[in-house]
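Sample pair:
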Amino acid sequence: MAWYVFAIVDRPPAERPGRGLAGALAARQVPGGFAIVERRADVPPVELGALKQHDAVLTRVAEAVPAILPVRFGTLLELEEIEAALDEREEELAEAFDRVRDRVQFTWRRPGSDVRSPASTARPASGKEYLRRVAHAAKPPPAAFRSIRETLRPLVAAERYQRATPSIPDSLYHLVGRDGAARYRLAARKLASADPAVRVTGPFPPFAFAPDLL
């Protein structure tokens, strides 16, 4: 059977990592780190229960290691395929681990923001259309996030903004040190309660700050 991959970590958990979706987890050494995997014959169905279980496994593993790079749901590969995908990417992995080490993610959403229509995600019909989309994507976060960014900046190690998609509203991601997470959460709740246009969740493993590895 192949391996279902949850994450790449900088070192294996000190204790047994427990269970995955249906079986025991294992930490297999790969180029640049360790893959947290589970033996599985097929990809689990994309449904809410499986997604929540996948996230729960990642959260548990994240609490047991200094640095974790989550892998997207549904990644099922042979060990040789994992090693080939990560081969000669040790430097990239080291930089990514340094970025997320001992840090967690908080996510801000603007639920009322307009999502892009499916047509806007299609392949651009011309170079002009492509440049228009690039310029649109490069715009700074909307004013609704301004006070959030200014107030929380001292606690934020890294920030990423994602414009609305057909399924996700405008999103602002903050990478925060674990030692500052309680202070961040307290300040964030006050900001969120004062502005019904936004909501905050977290802390999470650093999903938005992990490179696309596999």
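The first strand starts at residue 2 and ends at 9.
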